[in-house]
Amino acid sequence: MQLGSNAGKDKNMEHKKFETIRSARRRGDGRDPLGTNSEIARKLKQYYDDIVSEEVPDRFTSLLSQLEEREESSSPTEKD
Fold first, then answer.
1. What are the Basic and acidic residues biased-composition ranges (predicted)?
2. Can you tell me the distance from the alpha carbon of 7 to that of 50, in angstroms, rounded to the nearest whole number?
3. Rounded CA separation 58/13 (Å)
């Protein structure tokens, strides 16, 4: 029977944790339930956004254009 009573206590503790997190969110007291993981995610997103917003260098644009031209010129002669 001890297993049953321990399971009930564990469930009650999980419920209390959930309620604490939910009430902290409602109050907006700044407590983050994910802790440092949220900071890591925020920094990764910022880093990704910075990289995506960078312009493509002219050299890469030129190389891509050359590649497209070669693909277009070789396409009609190839058979699928």
1. 8-32
2. 48
3. 59
Read off the pLDDT of residues 53-77 as tens digits, 9 standing for 90 and up: 999 899 999 999 999 999 998 876 5
Q: Does residue 32 contact residue 38 with C-beta atoms inside 8 Å?
A: yes
Decide: pTM greater than 0.70.
no
Give the pair of three-digit tokens for residue 57: 């260098």
The verdict on 78 and 41 lying in the same domain is yes
How many helices (H) and strands (E) are present in the chain, helices listed first? 3, 0
Q: Which domain holds residue 18?
A: 1-33
How far apart (Å, rounded) are the C-alpha atoms in residues 44 and 24?
A: 25
Together in a domain, 11 and 27? yes
